Amino acid sequence: MPTTSRKTPGQPVSSDPATVDMVQIAIAAEVGTVFDRYELQHPQCKFGTDGVCCRLCHMGPCRITPRAQLGICGANADTITARNLLREIAAGTAAHSDHGRMLVRTLKLVAQGKGGDYQIKDPQRLHVAARFFEIATEGRDDMAIAGDLADFFMTQFAWSEEPNATLNLAPEKRQALWKKLGISPDGIDSAVVELMHRTNMGVDHDYRHLIMGGLKCSLADGWVGSAIATTVSDILFGTPKPVRSRVNLGVLAGDKVNIIVHGHEPTLSEMLAVASGNEELLEYARSKGAAGINVAGICCTANEVLMRHGLPIVGNFLQQELAILTGAVEVMVVDVQCVMPSLAQVAKCFHTKLVSTSEIAHTAEAEQITFNVRKGYEQACDLIRKAIDNFGNRDKDRVHIPNESMELVAGFSNETIFQMLGGTFRSTFRPLNDAIIDGRIRGIVGIVGCSNPKVVADQSHVKLTEELIKRNVLVLQTGCSAIACAKAGLLTPEAALAKAGASLREVCEAVGIPPVLHMGSCVDNSRILMAATNLLAEGGLGEDLSDLPVAGAAPEWMSEKAVAIGHYFVASGMYVVLGHPLYVEGSRNVHDLLCGEMENITGGRFEWEPDPAIAADKLLAHIERKRDALHINAQKERKLYDMKSRRELQ
């Protein structure tokens, strides 16, 4: 197994010392990991990476080459690459929206009194959402309001004669553009089904028409499914507030029962967080020789329990196997999305019990316990007892927990930002707008997405973020990107002193925030959309999202969800830099539409740039162009007032 890439000899697999350390342990244990399997897949299929391989019917598969420029049905490279891209958007949208659907069902059960130990943790968020969507609140109890809100949200999944109501969260000018372009979704499920239909053999062959359909489906993700998921999570589990915790493999405890939650749906992990403080269970752990119970997370479930409970994060996507390799994990609880099938094989080499909990996502050779909302707390307690009982099976001679762990501050919801900037009684984004207009903050970049073995893990996230904050750009992060930068120490207020440019540091010190704001899991990219919307609503920075000095980046993305995310940011009028291309390079026309022409259609576009320093240059150049267009870069003339002039002003 490589500790350095054979593709680039001498290049480490990760910029994180804990990851490199655990890869060495994997070599000694003869356990294959994601880094090993990546090397064994080389050379990767060029037809696949260019997007010109079609297997949508069984006349093929067909590959577009200089000799065969059409598939058997007559489809060219433009049609094939567009169809392949759209199927990724449909899958990403389905994943995020199904996450939202599960949460809406939980909210409905709570409203009916059938939600077990789940409850409404943030009634204020419930009332704000209900009023926005015109659900009566006056004189009604929270359960009645929650039931109606759940019913309303469920209607957003099915087809409707009108565009999705949650699109009203976006600025009016942006809504009008979507309507003009014919890309306003009218139901999450119908948008996904339509895309799968249009990309079937013999249906839609026009690459431009196909790509616009992809934008429509992606909007059903960002402004509908993900927005619903974030809202309901806040209502059920509490709206995040700033919280301190720690991150990286070093958060695993040598003397405690270690339980890892991994995946994306926060419902069961919420109960595990609550149950870990149960005194009866703590006493049971002590009776088995453990000092306590340590629940920690991986991937976006980690971000969910971090924001609301301050539980530590073990790592991001590429560290899931390495966590088991520490020999110190009693139980790993997985649900959906980003869960590697390899985990069962790695767990077999250690005492770790792998438990799969989703009805729709079983992991072969793992123990299956299907999550039930009504029994959530009971199931959480059972899982903790299982972990405690397994503590005695830990082989102390094989325990290797890296020393690396870093402090972080997370939990920057829009509601929190409003209050931090303006206070509880006068919540406002005004100080942030003023800082941007004055140039103390040049602009804002949302950096999101996964970690990917194609590059040195975490390095691009960290370098890009450091370059931007050094140049006085405020960074908003979610998902594995936030975890990567947290490990590098960038998610603390102290990072502003060490890494931020002078004027950004001044703002961070005044408000008491880090230069990099952790906004949640990858489904919480909707918070970034709303942050941009709030900036616009505050005034002084244009009339549409495309006017703002903001941009997005995903330097190490790998998931179909990231494809959907990138497209809904572009559809919302934003410039998005990806660290490696979408699978469209086999079609010059599709590439040019996405990376050039699209700016004249939606106001946003893509660009690929693997070098994080060059990506930072491009993002800052875009921000400065937007500032120039807003006339906020012009130097204001200084005027000295004498006493007569002052009296005239008064």
The CATH architecture category of the largest domain equals 3-Layer(aba) Sandwich
Number of helices: 26
Q: Spans with pLDDT under 50 lasting ≥5 residues?
A: none
Question: Which percent band covers the strand fraction?
Answer: 5-15%
Q: What is the overall pLDDT average?
A: 94
How do the strands of the widest beta sheet line up side by side? 6-5-4-7-8-9
User: What is the third-level CATH name, the topology of the largest domain?
Assistant: Rossmann fold
Structural class: alpha/beta
**Largest beta-sheet details:** 6 strands, parallel
Total domain units? 3
Separation of termini? 75 Å
Specify the helix fraction band: 40-55%
The radius of gyration over CA amounts to 25 Å
What is the C-level CATH assignment of the largest domain? Alpha Beta
Number of extended strands: 16
Shape: globular
Written account of the structure:
With 650 residues, the chain is an alpha/beta fold. The chain folds into 3 domains: 77-237, Substrate Binding Domain Of Dnak, Chain:A, Domain 2 (Up-down Bundle); 249-398, 3-Layer(aba) Sandwich (Rossmann fold), CATH 3.40.50.2030; 412-629, Rossmann fold (3-Layer(aba) Sandwich), CATH 3.40.50.2030. The chain contains 26 helices and 16 strands. It is globular, with a radius of gyration of 25 Å.
Quick description:
The chain is an alpha/beta fold and 650 residues long. The chain contains 26 helices and 16 strands. The protein folds into 3 domains: 161 residues, Substrate Binding Domain Of Dnak, Chain:A, Domain 2, CATH 1.20.1270; 150 residues, Rossmann fold; 218 residues, Rossmann fold, CATH 3.40.50.2030.
